[in-house]
Amino acid sequence: STNVANELGAGNLVAARASATVAISIAAVESSAMSFALFLSRHVWGYAYSNVPEVIRYAAEITPILCISIVMDSLSASLTGVVRGSGKQKVGAYVNIAAFYIIGIPMGLLFCFILDLKVKGLWIGILSGCTLQTLTL
After folding, report:
1. What is the C-alpha to C-alpha distance for residues 12 and 6, in angstroms, rounded to an integer?
2. Average pLDDT value for the chain
């Protein structure tokens, strides 16, 4: 956001766009690499939290949702920085409120408690809000 703001303030629209593109590209590549590594090791991570087979299995089961959430959240963070750097803080705030408080949290509660998907349902709600925020920004 700082680089975008500096370049826009200096009137360098091409440099501001390049800065935004670089930030978003780095976020996409880095989060994809981390998510891929997490996905490949999904059957191991559960052991860090428990030695109960059911917990380990469930951790492996929800890891793909977590991996997608990591990528979406990283892109969303980069896009939010670009929006802030552009001086459009209110736009970012409104999108955040709509994506999470109006869509993501209610969906998570619906999937978790009404459709009985438990923690997986909460993660689906978070992912829904984050994806909506990323696509909107």
Report:
1. 9
2. 94
